[in-house]
């Protein structure tokens, strides 16, 4: 029985197990999904930080800006030095950006607003000095204990910077699953095969899946396999990958052909089927099950556009779910021109997304020839999901947009 894309997502999600956590050195944590909270171990900034190179002063010494003022410079405080102390009024300390504010001072005058005569610093008439100027006060960004990054965050340079500054040398992150990608079919030959017969095609789906998964950064080791349409060979390889890998992706061999052995082979190896058929094009014969070890198994319809679409519509969201990643907010776009699809199926329509000139984003349909037209996806940005309930879609209508990785 065919189910809707939303019901398929629901069915898949119900059967997914969370992946375990592991510790990861900070320098390797970019792209990983955080499984802990990152909190401030001390105030940020941790001291009154000087923000301009110049002279730290007591603003009370310089209140009358109608006259020239003179201070004697008693020393230099660089970033990384302990705070010095201003001994008396009428003095100042030369300071660097990033240094701690010297004790007894409350403002910094940048070099550009001063003149120098030996140890004497001259502040010309008209230059105003206010308490707190050129300072980044202790804790003015965040207080100790503040939550800075929540579990579920994909770590980018911004979160890595924050983790580093609070001393998180190791981060608890989700384990990235190892993936077996199995291309099925006797017609397939490797890309570097010396000879391609007129009845043969080069394997492309497994390369496409691998590339998109690598680009997503959600997975660990990826290995590709080829299954010929030969049951003993299919069974042996499936048995091996089900024992060894955390996620199994098959492409091809799941529709109604005489040699479409995959569903039967999987069932006999103890993989429980939860879904076989979604009311959508491309990707209708999608098959999903879980092994006795709760390994998810997706058998993606072999047509290249179907495989690639199903990866983005179902497999990548499933991976994010298993990793505990906070789902990205759904993106919507407006259809730039009318589109008609008369079948009682949802249509995953490849589009190019461009600025519509009015502050929005317009999706220009780039329909493929058949779902075997793998070149048809070149130059597209993703696809919009057109619901099965309608057949005519008007320019300006809003739809969910699924972006390619
Ligand atoms: N009687 C029916 N026939 C078909 C139906 C149906 O409902 N009833 N569904 C059609 C739909 S929709 C699709 S999609 C395909 C899916 O079929 P399979 O998953 O069994 O895939 P194959 O038949 O093995 O391959 C389809 C097509 O894709 C090419 N292919 C397969 N693997 C690769 C690869 N790794 N790299 C490049 N190209 C690949 C393969 O050569 C075929 O041309 O079934 C319809 N039939
Ligand atoms: O739905 Mo199949 O996935 O058309 O090519």
TrEMBL record:
Q: Which family does it belong to?
A: Belongs to the MoeA family.
Q: Which UniProt keywords apply?
A: Magnesium, Metal-binding, Molybdenum, Molybdenum cofactor biosynthesis, Transferase
Please name the CDD domains in this protein's record: MoeA
Q: Per the record, a Pfam family?
A: MoeA_N
Q: What is this protein called?
A: Molybdopterin molybdenumtransferase
Enzyme's top EC category = transferase
Q: What is its EC number?
A: 2.10.1.1
MoaB/Mog domain: residues covered:
180-321
Cofactor(s) demanded: Mg(2+)
Name the pathway it acts in. Answer: Cofactor biosynthesis; molybdopterin biosynthesis
What InterPro entries is this protein classified in? MoaB/Mog-like_dom_sf, MoaB/Mog_dom, MoCF_biosynth_CS, MoeA-like, MoeA_C_domain_IV, MoeA_C_domain_IV_sf, MoeA_linker/N, MoeA_linker/N_sf
What job does the chain carry out? Catalyzes the insertion of molybdate into adenylated molybdopterin with the concomitant release of AMP.
Provide the catalytic activity annotation.
adenylyl-molybdopterin + molybdate = Mo-molybdopterin + AMP + H(+)
The record ties this protein, via Gene3D superfamilies, to: MoaB/Mog-like domain, MoeA, C-terminal, domain IV, Molybdopterin biosynthesis moea protein, domain 2, Molybdopterin biosynthesis moea protein, domain 3
Sorted alphabetically, which NCBIfam families does this protein's record hold?
molyb_syn (TIGR00177)
């Amino acid at each position: 029985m065919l189910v809707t894309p939303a019901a398929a997502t629901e069915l898949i999600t119900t059967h997914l197990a969370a992946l375990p956590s592991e510790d990861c050195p900070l320098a390797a944590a970019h792209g990983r999904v955080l499984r802990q909270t990152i909190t401030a171990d001390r105030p940020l900034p941790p001291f009154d930080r000087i923000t301009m190179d110049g002279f730290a002063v007591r603003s009370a010494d310089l209140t009358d800006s109608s006259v020239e003022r003179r201070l004697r410079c008693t020393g230099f405080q660089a970033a990384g030095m302990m705070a010095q102390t201003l001994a008396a009024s009428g003095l100042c300390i030369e300071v660097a950006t990033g240094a701690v504010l010297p004790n007894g001072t409350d403002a910094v005058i940048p070099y550009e607003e001063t003149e120098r005569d030996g140890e004497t610093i001259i502040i010309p008439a008209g230059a105003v000095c206010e308490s707190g100027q050129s300072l980044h006060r202790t804790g003015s960004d965040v207080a100790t204990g503040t939550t800075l990054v929540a579990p579920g965050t994909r770590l980018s340079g911004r979160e890595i910077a924050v983790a580093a500054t609070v001393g998180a040398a190791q981060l608890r992150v989700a384990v990235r699953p190892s993936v077996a990608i199995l291309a099925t079919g006797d017609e397939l030959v490797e890309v570097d095969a010396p000879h391609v017969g007129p009845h043969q095609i080069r394997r492309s789906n497994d390369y496409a899946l691998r590339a998109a998964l690598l680009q997503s950064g959600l997975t660990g080791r990826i290995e590709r396999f080829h299954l010929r349409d030969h049951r003993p060979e299919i069974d042996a390889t499936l048995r091996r990958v089900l024992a060894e890998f955390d996620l199994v992706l098959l492409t091809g061999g799941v529709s109604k052909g005489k040699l479409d052995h995959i569903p039967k082979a999987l069932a006999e190896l103890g993989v429980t089927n939860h879904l076989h058929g979604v009311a959508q094009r491309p990707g209708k014969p999608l098959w999903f099950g879980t092994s006795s070890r709760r390994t998810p198994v997706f058998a993606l319809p072999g047509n290249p556009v179907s495989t690639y679409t199903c990866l983005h519509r179902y497999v990548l969201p499933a991976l994010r779910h298993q990793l505990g990643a906070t789902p990205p907010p759904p993106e919507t776009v407006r259809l730039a021109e009318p589109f008609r699809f008369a079948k009682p199926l949802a249509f995953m329509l490849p589009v190019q997304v461009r600025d519509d000139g009015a502050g929005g984003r317009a999706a220009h349909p780039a329909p493929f020839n058949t779902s075997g037209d793998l070149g048809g996806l070149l130059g597209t940005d993703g696809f919009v999901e057109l619901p099965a309930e309608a057949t005519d879609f008007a320019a300006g209508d809003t739809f969910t947009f699924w972006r390619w990785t």
